[in-house]
Amino acid sequence: MSDHHDHLSLYGRQLSSRILLGTAQYPSPTILSEAVQRSGCEIITVSLRRELPKGTDGQSSGGSFWDLIQKMGAHILPNTAGCHTAKEAILTAKMARDLFKTNWIKLEVIGHHDSLQPDIFALVEAARNLVADGFEVFPYMTDDLVLAERLLAAGCKVLMPWCAPIGSAQGPVNVHGLRAIRGNFPDVPMIVDAGLGRPSHATQVMELGFDAVLLNTAVAKAGDPALMAEAFGKATEAGRSAYLAGMLEPRDMAVPSTPVIGQAVFGEL
Amino acid sequence: MKLIVNGEATESRATSLSELLNELGFEGDWLATAVDSELVVEQDRAAFCLKDGQRIEILSPMQGG
Question: How far apart are CA A135 and CA A153, in angstroms?
Fold first, then answer.
């Protein structure tokens, strides 16, 4: 179990869990619910799409999902996924706020089709506009230090660097870059968002001192998503505990762990 | 009146945004709306007068990462 005093604070909201889960690509709504529960996560990400009129069964797709997330009881973090300009992202954020009744927004402005790398210039522009409008922005970003500075100057209080392209499952491909961004902004809550593939990846970035992880595909596309969600939850906790405990730095030479004082000397037998 | 609703050309007799939602069978409190790229919040839909040629976006929650 986590230290009871080790809370994560995001825009003034205190959380005991350090894993955030996306809600897409699960085999079924039931499995999604189970994954959320078993991971221990308290924040789920959601999106917005064009609604269709009610079907002949009297249900709409948006309505069904709305009912499901209400029952989960997690905090909602809406995203602006699919937006390619600051203008699109700003309007989507405003629509999300009207619908979900939250000032939180996971700000995504995609700049590159294949890698889904963010358009960092539009990201900063959108962040500045949204913060001025009262939003609490969670920017999906690369691990660029200057970008981090610009986003903080724009008013972001949380940063969400990727560790690899979305859905790639590569894990931390630039540990040096992650270590640098963590080290340069030690007091800013940072969530590693995107690119995690295995629970050990979550442990690794938590050991680097990141405050939380956000993932979706690695859980949703696992053979048993609920079990994988639980594994990621434990791995995230393990990494956090290790970071707090203080880890031994690697050494070039062997050092005996058993004390040599008092060791018997038998001479030549 | 001709409107573009979620990218589809639509003929409508609605005069307000809330009437349009009713006319097209959109129901529920989980919708977000925009007209010509400007947000129209839920409480303003009844008083929002539509004009010929406007583009309406009607969004709802969906799964996302």
Answer: 15
